Structures are given as C-alpha cells and as structure tokens.
Amino acid sequence: MSLESKNKSIIPAPDGGLLQEIIRQIKLIWLLLKDKRVNIFLKVLPVISLIYLVIPFDFVPGIALPVIGALDDAAVVWIGTALFVGLCPPEIVEEHMDSLKKIIDTTWKDIPDEDIVDAEARDISED
Q: Which partner from 74, 113, 119, 120 sits 20 to 30 angstroms from 92, CA to CA?
C-alpha cells in the first residue's frame, strides 16, 4: 500500500475540511431519512442513536468517568449513523452524495469582435 493511498484512507475530506465533511454527512443522513426508497427499519438506526444521546441512561456513566462517558455517547452516534449510511442501497447513497457535491461547472467564453456593438449613451427626453 503506497503512502498516498494510505493517506487518502486516513484523511476523510481531502477537498474540504473535517467540519465540511461532518456537515456533508449530516445532510446525507437527512436526505436518506427523507428518501422513500430507503427501508423504514434502516431509518430507525440514526434515530435510536440520537435518542441514546439525549436519554439519561448510559452504558458508561459520565459522572464516574467523564471522558469515557462522552466518548461512549459519541461512539454510539457515530456507529449508528455509519451503519445507516453503510446499509442503505449504494446507488441511493451515491445519488445523494453526487447531489451534495454538485458544482456548476462553467467556462469563460470570449465574445467575438464582430458581436460587440460600439455605442454612446444619450438621454431621451419625453415630449
């Protein structure tokens, strides 16, 4: 495995930043949740992981081990959303990812000299 391919797997967002990638993933999850082609039972995964985040019950209590307790919550949300995206039909995920990455590609076109009109501005008085 070359160093370049190794770095691509480590760095999640080569064209943006970590924050942009997180926002893109949240938008992707939202689009997949709204998509009627995604199985309703799959849609339960991110919802349950978010419910786990807000309910007072924890596998590892935050009072006893505050850092591990917070990591436990983050891990459950990450696993729930990653499983959701991973188990959704790949063509639907790809379709939504393409729509999120879509950039209007334009090129500058020079106007040929014969299409340029040379004129002076003048006021037209109303009579």
A: 74
Residue type at position 90: P
Sign of CA dihedral 49, 53, 59, 65: positive
Q: Tell me the C-alpha distance between 45 and 38, whole Å.
A: 12
Q: Report yes or no: 33 and 80 within 8 Å, Cβ to Cβ.
A: no
Please answer whether residues 96 and 35 qualify as being in contact, where contact means their C-beta atoms are separated by less than 8 angstroms: yes
Q: Which one-letter amino acid corresponds to residue 89?
A: P
What the block records as the tokens of 22 is: 């997180």
Phi, psi of 101 (to 5 degrees): -90, -5
With vertex at residue 30, the alpha carbon angle to CA 99 and CA 72, rounded to the nearest 5 degrees, is: 125
Beta-carbon contacts of residue 27 (< 8 Å; ≥ 6 apart)? 100
Reduced 3-state DSSP string for 47-95: HHHHHHHHCCCCCCCCCCCHHHHHHHHHHHHHHHHHHHHHHCCHHHHHH
Number of H helices, E strands in the chain: 5, 0
User: Could you tell me if 69 and 61 are in contact, meaning their C-beta atoms sit under 8 angstroms apart?
Assistant: yes
